[in-house]
Amino acid sequence: MTGRRVSFTAGTLLLEGTTQRDDVRSAGGDWVWDARVGAWRCDAVHYRAAVERLREVAGGCEDRVPAWRSVRWPGVDIHTLRDEQQAAVTAWSPTRQGCIVMPTGTGKTEVALQIMAQTRVSTLVVAPVRDLMYQWHRRILAGLGYDAGVIGDNVFRVRPVSVTTYDSACIHMAKLGDQFGLIIFDECHHLPGPVRQDAARMCAAPMRLGLTATPERSDGRHVELDALIGPVVYEMPISAARGRTLADYDVVRIPVQLSAEEQARYDGLSREVRGYVMRRREEDPKYGWEDLCAETGHAPEARRAMKAYYAKKAIEDRAEEKLRVLEDLFRLHALEPCIVFVGSNAMARDVSRRFLVPCLLSHCGKKERLEVLQGLETGTYPALVANRVLDEGVDLPEVKVAVVVGGTASSRQAKQRLGRVLRRSGNARAVLYEVVSAGTTEEQRSRHRRKSDAYQGTRHRRI
Fold it and tell me: Where along the chain do the CATH 3.40.50.300 domains lie?
C-alpha cells in the first residue's frame, strides 16, 4: 500500500496521501488540486475508472468510498423475460454501465428489476416525477418483495434500496452518493439538463443503468449520457415491437380550419409578431427567439410582441373546430376508453368542461391522479384529458384510443404519447388521432414531431 487513499466527500472523490507535484491526472477522472485540503479532487462519477486506473499506474490505493452493501431480496417474483428483454439484460451485463432504449410498453421496468435481482446490491432508482417514483416503489415491492426507501415528496426515508426523483437526487446526492452500488435513471433523457446531471456526477455508483424510449434531446445534450451513464448498449426500434410486443396501430391526422373570427385575429397577431421581429432584424440580422425573450424584461414593444405570440398560439391550441371533431371522435369510439392530450392547461379545462371528463394537470395530487386512472380503468370515466402529465412513464389502463389536439414540436413527446395506447391486449388495434389547426404554425410542429419512424404511414382524414 502506497499510503494513498481515495474517499467520498460532498459528491466528489478526494485522493489523499499525495502532493501537488504528483501527477495523478493520468489516473482516470478530471483530477484538480484542491489547495484548501491539500489533496486531488474529481467528480464522484469517475469513481470506477479512477480507482481501477490508480491501481494500475499509482501502485494501488486504499479505497474508502464504498458504503453500499449486498442486498437480500425477500421474494423475487418477476415474469420470465421475453427474448428482447433478456437481450437487453445480456447487453448491459458485461460492462454494467449503459443505456437501454426500448419503446414505451415493451417492459423496461422488468428489465431493470431483473438486473437488480442479479446484482443484489444497494440500488437507487431515479424517476422524473413523484408519480413514477411511487410507481417504482410499488413495482419493487411486488417484484422483489422489498419495501424501498423514499427520498422526495417531503419524505426522507433512506434504505439500501430507495427510490427518488431527479430533483431530490440533485439535492441529496452530495450526502448519499457513496451509498449505492447501482443507480438506475428512468426516462434518462431528462438527466443531461444543466442541473439534473449533478444527480449522476455526484454519485460514485460503479454500476449505472439508463432507461428510455426516446434518448434524443432537441438541445443535443443526449450525447452527455455516455459520460454520465454509459453508451447505448441495447436499442429496440418500434418497428420490431409493432404488432408483436406492442399492439398494432394507426395514426390518423385530421386538419381543422379556424373560424372566420379566429382566422382574422390570428392573422392580425401574426403580423404584429412578424413586424416586430423584422424591425429588429434591420438592426441585428441575427435577431432571434432568444433575443426576444431577453428583451421582454425591459422593452415594452418586445413584451407586446411576446403577448401576441402566445395569444396566437392559444388560438391554434383552442380552436373551436377541434372540440367539434373531438365530439365526433367520442361518438365514433363510444364505450371505448380514451385519452385526450392537449397543448395547454386552458385547453385541458375547455375539454373537461365541454365533455364532463376529468382533467389531469401537473398540480393534481397523487390521490386524485390514482382515482382518475382507476376510474378510467373501471369504466367510471369514459375518457380523461391531460397536458404533459401523462406523456411518459406512468402505467395507464389498457387504452387503445388517443387524441392529440395540441403539443410541442418534440418527436420525443409524440412517441411517448403514442406509446400510451400501445400496450398489447389480445389482437386489439390502437389508434391515435392528431387534430391540427390547418394554415397555422401548428402544422409545422406537427410535421416536425412526426419525423419519427413510429409515425410512418400516417393517414390524413377530414371529419
Answer: 83-236, 249-258+319-460
Cα–Cα distance for residue pair 256/446, rounded to 1 Å: 13
- The CATH classification number of 5-63 equals 3.40.1170.30
Smallest CA-to-CA distance from 45 within 57, 28, 60, 33 is with 28
Assign domain 83-236 to its CATH architecture. 3-Layer(aba) Sandwich (3.40)
Sign of the torsion formed by the C-alpha atoms of 316, 321, 322 and 323: positive
Do 173 and 202 touch, CB atoms closer than 8 A? Answer: yes
SS3 state of residue 43: strand
Cell numbers for 437: 389547426
The answer as to CATH 3.40.50.300 being correct for domain 249-258+319-460 is: yes
Q: At what angle do helices 441-449 and 411-419 cross, to 10 degrees?
A: 70
Q: Are 420 and 219 in contact (CB under 8 A)?
A: no
- Residue-wise pLDDT for 406-456, tens only, equals 887 677 777 778 877 777 777 788 898 999 999 898 888 888 877 776 676
Dump pLDDT digits (tens) for 268-280.
Answer: 999 999 999 999 9
Q: The pTM is what?
A: 0.82
